Amino acid sequence: MLHLEIACDPAPGDSESRNVGGLLHAVIDRIECGLLACGSEGRLIHANLAAQRELQEASVLRLAGAHVVCVGPGHAAWSSAVAAASGRNVSSLVELGGADRPLTVAVLPLRLGPDQGLAALTVMGRRAACSPLALEMLSSHHGLTYAEGRVLRALVENCSAREIAAQHGVGLATVRTQIQAVRDKLGVRSIDALLLRAAQVPPVTALL
């Protein structure tokens, strides 16, 4: 795992501030969305755990020394958005990557401190409507069986009932019955409403 430090760490000896800083780092590491703070030239200031995973995967954003760079479609737009956020207090929405693995990000101005000026906060969109941990929590909360939870996960991944039946080696009628059971337990009337319900689950992630 990458070891990243935030630029505005508290002064040595300030134990209360260090405790607060450590708590903030722990909090943002439990958020599924990647959060990436950079200077005007893309110099890395801090990345939460989800952003670190994205940087390690290096499909769209990656580390080049102490700087974050964007590769592939959207690289110029992202660099311009970072400069605009850190230099002119401007927010932007940027689409990165190709059609096979797109990533939509919001680039927002971030004030680090009274005398430290602006940085750019890149908030990464989720690649899926719901994380595996969030789906597991949702399934458990509503009392879904293992098979029903598996069907819910497949629906969130945009699989059709026929595709789910083929993947799980069961009949189409069985899958349709399971989908109805999931809808009943979550209190929704359609698959669209079911997917919306999954998307509304808080963006939590597991710590590795």
Can you give keywords for this protein?
208 residues; alpha+beta; Beta-Lactamase; Arc Repressor Mutant, subunit A; 2 domains; two-stranded antiparallel ribbon; 44% helix; disordered N terminus
Brief synopsis:
The protein is α+β, with helices and mostly antiparallel strands. The protein folds into 2 domains: 110 residues, PAS domain (Beta-Lactamase); 68 residues, Winged helix-like DNA-binding domain superfamily/Winged helix DNA-binding domain (Arc Repressor Mutant, subunit A, Orthogonal Bundle), CATH 1.10.10.
Category from helices, strands and their pairing: alpha+beta
Report mean pLDDT, rounded to a whole number.
Answer: 85
Query: CATH superfamily of the largest domain, called what?
Result: PAS domain
**Domain module count:** 2
**Run of helices and strands:** HEEHEEHEEEHHHHH
Shape: elongated
Helix content percent band: 40-55%
CATH architecture of the largest domain: 2-Layer Sandwich
Q: How many DSSP E strands? A: 7
Could you say what the CATH topology of the largest domain is called?
Beta-Lactamase
Hey, roughly how much beta strand do the residues contain?
Answer: 15-25%
**Low-confidence parts, pLDDT < 50 over ≥5 residues?**
1-12
Radius of gyration: 20 Å
Largest sheet: 5 strands, antiparallel
Q: Which strands sit side by side, in order, in the main sheet? A: 2-1-7-6-5
Please give a structural write-up.
This protein has helices at 15-29, 49-57, 75-88, 132-141, 146-156, 161-168, 172-186, 191-199; strands spanning 35-38, 44-47, 61-64, 67-70, 92-96, 103-111, 118-124. With 208 residues, it is an alpha+beta fold. The chain has 2 domains: 15-124, Beta-Lactamase; 132-199, Winged helix-like DNA-binding domain superfamily/Winged helix DNA-binding domain (Arc Repressor Mutant, subunit A). The strands form 2 sheets. Strands 2-1-7-6-5 form a 5-stranded antiparallel beta sheet. A hairpin with a 6-residue loop joins strand 5 (92-96) and strand 6 (103-111). Helix 5 (146-156) packs across helix 7 (172-186).
